[in-house]
Inverse folding.
């Protein structure tokens, strides 16, 4: 079974580099591709505020896809971002599967290594399907980078 996946990242809706014409072109391009799944790996917003989340949600709703899998990026989780993300898109860690592929979405913004490993193990398990790990930033705990 083949699965057509489109990957988007770093939309930064309402950020200083956001270009509305670009988003219109992406809606058209993604919709014409007719993907089975659109995976969005973070930074939907620029500052993680409600208005940006609404704009990001409205943009993503316009994509013509069977399934949308969204994980947050570091810009999405400032201030009230985690609660807003959950309200708009559901769990920060998610999963999609069909007969040929399993996509495991991991929240790498507030990485709890034990929880992430457990989630990935539960997502994939032993099988012969293609495994796709979707996350925004590298899965290295902050203390290893800073310390």
């Amino acid at each position: 079974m083949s699965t057509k996946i489109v990957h988007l990242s770093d939309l930064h809706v309402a950020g200083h580099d956001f270009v509305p014409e670009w988003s219109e072109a992406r809606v058209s391009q993604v919709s014409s591709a007719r993907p089975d799944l659109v995976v969005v790996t973070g930074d939907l917003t620029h500052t993680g505020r409600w208005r940006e989340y609404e704009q990001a949600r409205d943009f993503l709703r316009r994509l013509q896809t069977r399934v949308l899998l969204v994980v947050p990026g570091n810009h999405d989780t400032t201030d009230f971002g985690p609660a807003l993300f959950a309200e708009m898109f559901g769990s920060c860690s998610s999963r999609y599967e069909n007969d040929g592929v399993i996509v495991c979405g991991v929240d790498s913004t507030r990485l709890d290594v034990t929880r992430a490993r457990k989630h990935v193990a539960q997502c994939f398990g032993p099988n012969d399907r293609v495994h796709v790990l979707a996350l925004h930033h590298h899965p290295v705990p902050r203390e290893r980078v800073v310390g």
